[in-house]
Amino acid sequence: MDEDPTALVRRINASAEFNRWCGFDVVSCAPGAVELAMPWRKEAGQYAGFLHAGLVGALIDTACGFAAATLVGPRLLAAHFSVNCLRPAAGQRFLARARVVKPGRQQVFTACELYAIEDGVEKLVATGETLLTVLAKEA
Amino acid sequence: MDEDPTALVRRINASAEFNRWCGFDVVSCAPGAVELAMPWRKEAGQYAGFLHAGLVGALIDTACGFAAATLVGPRLLAAHFSVNCLRPAAGQRFLARARVVKPGRQQVFTACELYAIEDGVEKLVATGETLLTVLAKEA
Amino acid sequence: MDEDPTALVRRINASAEFNRWCGFDVVSCAPGAVELAMPWRKEAGQYAGFLHAGLVGALIDTACGFAAATLVGPRLLAAHFSVNCLRPAAGQRFLARARVVKPGRQQVFTACELYAIEDGVEKLVATGETLLTVLAKEA
Amino acid sequence: MDEDPTALVRRINASAEFNRWCGFDVVSCAPGAVELAMPWRKEAGQYAGFLHAGLVGALIDTACGFAAATLVGPRLLAAHFSVNCLRPAAGQRFLARARVVKPGRQQVFTACELYAIEDGVEKLVATGETLLTVLAKEA
User: What distance lies between CA A78 and its chain's CA centroid?
Assistant: First the structure.
């Protein structure tokens, strides 16, 4: 991988329309670990006004993919992801902390915690994991 | 449950800001089975222009929740959901077909297939499942 | 793949010590679909005398792997599997019906239903899925 | 819960036939955290001689259930569990370290790491999680 991992992750994030709509912000980026934040906006709410489970999943899946990309580059596809909804996701801002659990030549296992932040206080609201496939080089 | 299940599901769908932004449309609704559609829009894209995995998850999780609500009413919370990304989600429209696998007093197991539709042709692009908790009545 | 799929699956099943201890029996085998049975034995019980969740998972994971092997051969590893425990698994015999949802060059998505059989009556007791990685050929 | 959590967990472990066959041993037990070990035996092998994925799942699911029981007592059922197979599970002994991620009145979220031990060296071979339902008191 020639490109600097932080530059790579920021470039992918900027190139995705949905990430821009969400306001996804790459807060930190180290080998195998990424923090991704999103501000609350009312268009992101489910029926009771909490962050929609789809956006909980979007934050987790995206942060996991970025964490994997810091180690193996951009030729990755999410094959499977799962989300545990621990508490209602209510806050002014949301922060996903993703890490690579096990990198590999063909696949990368990742995990993530999602925090809601209200008046500076972090609360764990969801956990999740993503299994990514490393795309084979074209023959 | 006093309210008609279709009316209930349409009312919940209309009351969620994110569902409205996505353009989620309840196409059909029967006891234990719901079809939920979403038109493509470019703000829904990931970096390569396919439907973002977060929205794949949002369609699956929402359709599963609605299918459960047709049987047990609105006092439900998603505890866990998972998504298998089978193919790139590219199409003019997306259709989630969710069904209840096993209803229960304390929890409801559901499953879902997500199809991309291009020029009238359906293609299976993802599968997923959601485990919902039936909220206990207040004492 | 030179070997007949049924012969391949039966050969793998016979070569695994744990499968023999469990009494796993390949009941049927078609391209992309396998049925695997196990008789009840009391050493297979959890504390309440039902089939142990680990054996529910073993039946599902094994049947899914066999279904995948009928299409892509034996060079496979399970990367992820999950199990939904719908009902207590009580019966004289258990039957896992697994199918390939989406085969691929690098990975195979599968799904499975597990039935308990008592006096000839089948009852769905669990569902599950396995994501398998196709091992790359050695260079 | 009147019974001491360690005594409770050891009692459940001793009462399950499959746990005894596996040789499951409760190594440590604290509020919300349990370590469960199993010695290798050749009857536990899959076709290549590694620990069978079903037993990987059995260790994870059982350790997670015990961790939950230390906080909420024995009235628990596993609703969903999942396993990530990171590396071939080869060793003289296996150790599952489970912890409660979020306890609740109706459900308990848990997570687990599974280590293979060879000549005193621990290697992470799998991760997993279990979502347990707290059974409602009979009316």
Answer: 11
First-to-final CA distance of chain D: 19
Quote the tokens at residue B102: 């096993």
Residue C101 lies in a domain: yes
Rounded Cα–Cα distance for residues B81 and D111 (Å): 16
Q: Is D61 on the interface with A (CB under 8 A)?
A: no
The total number of structural domains in chain A stands at 1
Q: Is B28 on the interface with D (CB under 8 A)?
A: no
Distance CA B124, CA D114 (A): 35
Q: Is the ipTM of this complex over 0.85?
A: yes
Q: Which regions of chain B are under pLDDT 50? A: 139
- Residue D139 falls within a domain, yes or no? no
Report yes or no on B139 lying in a domain.
no
Tokens of B18: 């994110």
Residue A46, domain extent: 5-134
C79 assigned to some structural domain: yes
Mean per-residue pLDDT over chain D, rounded: 95
The pLDDT tens digits of the residues spanning B71-87 come to 999 999 999 999 999 99
User: CATH no. for residue A27?
Assistant: 3.10.129.10
CB neighbour class for C135 (10 Å; exposed up to 12, middle 13-18, buried from 19): middle
Per-residue pLDDT 10s for chain A (139 aa) are 667 999 999 999 999 999 999 999 999 999 999 999 999 999 999 988 899 999 999 999 999 999 999 999 999 999 999 999 999 999 999 999 999 999 999 999 999 999 999 999 999 999 999 999 999 875 4
Measure A135 CA to nearest chain C CA, in Å. 8
Structural tokens at position A68? 């994997």
Task: Find the closest chain D residue to C40 by CA distance.
Answer: D18
CA distances from D91 to C17, D53, D64 (A): 16, 14, 21
What tokens were used for D79?
């609703």
Q: Residues, chain D, total? A: 139
By Cβ distance, the residue of A17, A46, A59 closest to B18 is A46
Phi, psi of B16 (to 5 degrees): -100, 120
